Amino acid sequence: MRTSDYPLLDRRALTRALGGLFAGLAVTPHAGAESAPRAPQPPSQPKAAPTRVASYVARKPAPETQVQTSSADRGINPCMTPDPGFGVYGKWEGGIGMGQFIMPVRGGLTPRGDFDLMVHFHGHEPVRKEWVQVMDGAVLVGIDLGIGSGSYEEAFQAPDVFPRLVEAVERAVAKKANRKQARVRHLGLSSWSAGYGALQHILMQSYAKERTDTVVLLDGLHCGYSGAAINGQPIFMFTEFAKRAAAGETLMFVSHSSIIPPGYASTTETADYLVHEVGGRLRDVRGVGPMGMTMITRYSKGNFHVRGFSGNDKMDHCAQIGEYRDVLKVHVKPRWNSPRGRAE
After folding, report:
1. Does 28 map to a domain?
2. pTM for the full model?
3. E strands present in the chain
4. What residues make up the domain containing 273?
5. What is the CATH number of the domain that holds 72?
6. Of 141, 223, 237, 286, which has the fewest beta carbons less than 10 angstroms from its beta carbon?
7. Are residues 192 and 218 in contact, defined by beta-carbon separation less than 8 angstroms?
8. Residue 238 φ then ψ, to 5°
């Protein structure tokens, strides 16, 4: 199961189920956030969404994808992965108004004070474990606001929230680096599970549209239906970004498990929908993924990449975070070429 906020859900039942899904996984709210997750809220309808008649019936997870793999067979429990430490990075720090950040102990900035920034939503600690094994210069912000995507949507509806967050990070980085000022050079947004709700609003706003270079969605994009077809209106901002990535302007990576949620579109279907919107078609494959996952579909056009995996349980959802490491290594790190940091 996964978070979403569509009216067909039994919201209390979903909240209870999600409590079980995330048991044992380090997904905790940032300082100042409410400690108990809020119940899912009705989805906000983007005011700037273009009018469109839904017509595409996306592929649903096939019966053969509905499998479960034990941690013994995987060789790892994806929901409780070993901690590799922080690499060249210092510990998590606050002081940015929302969430926490890590940056290299030394370095990571250009001579004039430019740095690269990834803002990640949902699961900051599991994501940090993947980040530090690849990245050695860019700054990572982690934001956790609870279980439901509604809390992320609400937090970033106002158009001044995200710009103020970036500005706060710039001030904090300048202070840590003992610089007069520091400025973001490359800006990325990534999310796992419910965190896509933040991106849904951020990517509608002119500030992010003009500045965001990279978007990574790890098993977390949902929408409703119009009859049997995908209702693409609430996720039009992701479609627009996918088209820009396919044209080589930006970078976008989307991954999905094969979990079937109750009454709304799965991440399998939304990924298929995005591929359709850029004029492509998912290719069936058979490959090995991280943390014992099995890859079943893939697609690439320009800088737009989609990877699909079988599996329909908690560990398959958690294992999607393991895909983050490969995305960073293969796509983000060489694209950004961030100034290297060091531990001393």
Report:
1. yes
2. 0.88
3. 100-102, 106-107, 114-121, 139-143, 183-192, 212-218, 225-226, 229-230, 251-256, 283-288, 294-301, 304-309, 341-342
4. 11-44+54-338
5. 3.40.50
6. 286
7. yes
8. -75, -35
